[in-house]
Design a protein that fits this description.
Blueprint: H1 2-22, H2 26-40, H3 42-59, H4 61-64, H5 102-138, H6 140-155, H7 158-169, H8 173-182, H9 185-199, H10 203-210, H11 215-251, H12 263-270, H13 279-306
């Protein structure tokens, strides 16, 4: 009899496991809904396609580029695009003042722009989220100190502050990432602080404090999960701002080294030839525009999807 009961119970457990495997998890359901919403949102779908294309180009730049981005041929300097008069099919988008292939430099420039945007946003997001959590959770002197620090930074125009720091640290890819990462925390800090102030008085936070959980446990387990969607939305939109900022610094000669192909340096090179060689500056400018547009469109979709206050 005992063996029969044991067999029945074992079979029931096996059936429950199979049923759980068949039942989709809550996360998978949310992902499916989000993807359906992306397909329905034509603007976001276009933005996603642009981003996928840019990321694919950046990852496969060394494979799909027809030439070395730094290979020079002065005999072919300022060659027009293939469809223009005097153009060559071997250089579809033409060449710059040193005879370097613009298409190849665009492909490799995508790597730098995306890398700088992603790493700088991670740095600024970590700093801003940490300071915002501390400011909103503890309040009083901690809040006053952090918010006054934010006010001081906001008092300086971003480009002026970045130029001053870059003039001290010097140009270079690492320094560009550090400057853009450290100077971009204020947006995260202010938004996270306001979210934490409204969440810290919730009943579940008070209950967690009452049973003896430490402050760090409360912030990590009960507050941070409730604001992570806001952080993701800000981070997505900040990538676009960082890409433009990096291009601006490089355009002014305080960004990435000249030996590294970037969209900003291509713009800087093309400004002297805009009247007689428009393609040198036009194509990197279009690359920046479409990449930022794609990021903003996806960011708007993420905001609408992740922010419950926008749902009716």
């Amino acid at each position: 009899m005992d063996d029969y009961i044991g067999t029945v119970l074992k079979r029931q457990k096996e059936e429950e496991v199979v049923e759980e495997e068949k039942t989709p998890s809550e996360t998978s359901i949310k992902v499916r809904r989000a993807l359906k919403g992306l397909v329905k949102n034509k603007a976001a779908l276009v933005g996603a396609c642009i981003l996928v294309a840019v990321v694919a180009v950046a990852l496969m730049a060394s494979v799909i580029s027809p030439y070395d981005p730094n290979s020079q041929n002065l005999a072919l300097r300022l060659t027009p695009p293939a469809w223009a008069e005097g153009g060559s099919i071997s250089h579809v988008l033409g060449t710059d003042h040193l005879g370097r292939d613009i298409l190849s430099r665009l492909f490799f420039g995508a790597r730098i722009s995306l890398m700088v945007g992603a790493v700088a946003v991670v740095i600024s997001g970590f700093l801003g989220t940490t300071l915002g959590l501390l400011s909103g959770f503890y309040g009083n002197k901690v809040d006053t100190f952090i918010m006054r620090l934010a006010d001081i930074q906001l008092a300086f125009p971003f480009i002026l502050l970045a130029l001053a720091v870059m003039a001290v640290l010097g140009s270079g890819l690492r320094n560009v990432i550090i400057v853009l990462g450290v100077t971009g925390w204020v947006m995260y800090g202010r938004v996270v602080r306001s979210e934490v102030i409204s969440i810290r008085e919730k009943e579940y936070v008070e209950a967690s404090r009452a049973i003896g959980n430490k402050d760090i446990q409360i912030m990590m387990k009960h507050i941070l999960p409730n604001i992570i969607s806001t952080i993701v939305i800000i981070g997505t939109l900040e990538v676009a701002r960082v890409i433009i900022a990096e291009s601006a610094l490089t355009f002014l000669g305080l960004g990435v080294e000249p030996s590294i192909p970037t969209w900003g340096s291509m713009l800087s090179d093309g400004r002297e030839y805009i009247s007689n060689a428009w393609w040198v500056a036009t194509f990197p400018g279009l690359a920046i525009m479409f990449t930022v547009l794609g990021i903003n469109l996806v960011g708007d979709w993420l905001r609408d999807t992740l922010d419950p206050r926008l749902k009716t």
